[in-house]
Amino acid sequence: MIRTLPLAQWLSSLRPDDTPVAWHGDRAWTLGELRYDVATLQSALKTWQGQRWALCFDNSYLFIVALLATLHAGKTPVMLGHSRVSLLEQQKHLFDGLLSDTELNITSPTAVVVSAHRVSDVPLTFADISEAAHIELFTSGSTGQPRRVVKPIACLDREAELLAQRFGKRLAGCRVVASVVPQHLYGLTFRIFLPMALSLPLSATMIYYAEQLAAIAPGHRYAFISSPAFLKRLDHQLAPPPVDLIISAGGKLPWRDVEHAFHWLGVWPDEIYGSTETGILAWRHRQRDACGWVPFPGVTLREHHGVFHAISPLIPEPQGIELDDMLSFDEQGMFTIGARRGRVVKIEEKRISLEEVEQRVLALEGVIDAAALPVYRNGRQGIGVLLVLDEKTRCTWQQHNGKAVELSWRRALIPWLEPVAIPRYWRILDEIPVNSMNKRVVTQLEEFFHETS
Questions:
Q1: pLDDT category, 173, cuts 50, 70, 90?
Q2: What distances in angstroms separate CA 302 from CA 161, 162, 324, one per listed residue?
Q3: Which residues are paired to 260 by β-bridges?
Q4: Environment class of residue 4 by beta-carbon count within 10 Å: exposed (0-12), middle (13-18) or buried (19+)?
Q5: Which domain holds residue 128?
Q6: Across residues 348-353, what is the average pLDDT?
Q7: Do 81 and 222 share a structural domain?
Q8: pTM, whole model, 2 decimals?
Q9: Which of 75, 146, 284, 307 is least enclosed by beta carbons within 10 angstroms?
């Protein structure tokens, strides 16, 4: 069994000061430097008023400094998932103060966290972390309204244990790079907790582009924590980096993107199913399209009155948490993910599944991606779709009358959809927009239909 370090022991374990923790370019931080920086910030935090401190960081090493200092000082870290000043001003009722690696001009108490780049000459001590210690995350989902999710540190430690048992052997000797931010649960778990629990060096900076991934320093093995949106944008013209493990979560990963990742990197991605509320629930390692999900040990997925509930050691609520997805299980206990609850709308007294509309539209020749949503015009409701087309189909759409092409799509959908479910409004995009966690935000998608069709 692979041993993991709980957060309370990240600083107090018997590892030497020169243990590598993080790097950025040619700059590296060691455990000794982390101990010194946390001790410095912890002492300051103990003198500052306010219990709940928002963490807004680009640099993951400084994020770890703030996370540990806040907890060892008996305070509560709050993660809003962004660093936008105007939005922080609107949300300042959610925190008492703010820690960041850059100056943010807001009216709440703020402090800029820096590294002293030094190691203490004397042993440092750190206050114990309460067993009730937790982190507060805020997720907006599709509504745009912040929702508070409380994550006990004990649950995050247990999550790292489960992941270590699944991926620990493959992670041994790896460095960790990521295209996801640590202020959301996926990034927090995989980019921070997992490497710290296994004492793996992590990149302090985020990978935004395939060029950055291709440019990571040779001579090491890497684990890449990614999103489906990033894997969709891989550039096979670049030289592949030495990535030994790819983990993807935060949304659906189309099979074609799984194949593209494998063809470039020589590694089949591992996928994670879960949510901010539930934590990790299941995983899969596809080398073919039709492959089910396997629940993590201790996870139970149970149906009750048509709604699935997740019960797991990572969920504090004993009754579990309702899932938005519909699941189908096979005899081996593996499952596939179906339509999402709540994506059903009523049009002219007909219940229309937006999931089904998307699947039928995706089956049209030349359609790469699709998003369906209800559109209101002149007191009437219809279905609108955003489409991403392959090059050939897009050229046809541009060179010929777009209305004629849309009419051919409508005709092709007649055998499959109710008349009121056939899309009335069509928009062609280069890419369907998602937020930083690869989620489609309905209010953002609706903006494409604001103009008169």
A1: very high
A2: 23, 20, 13
A3: none
A4: buried
A5: 1-151
A6: 70
A7: no
A8: 0.81
A9: 307
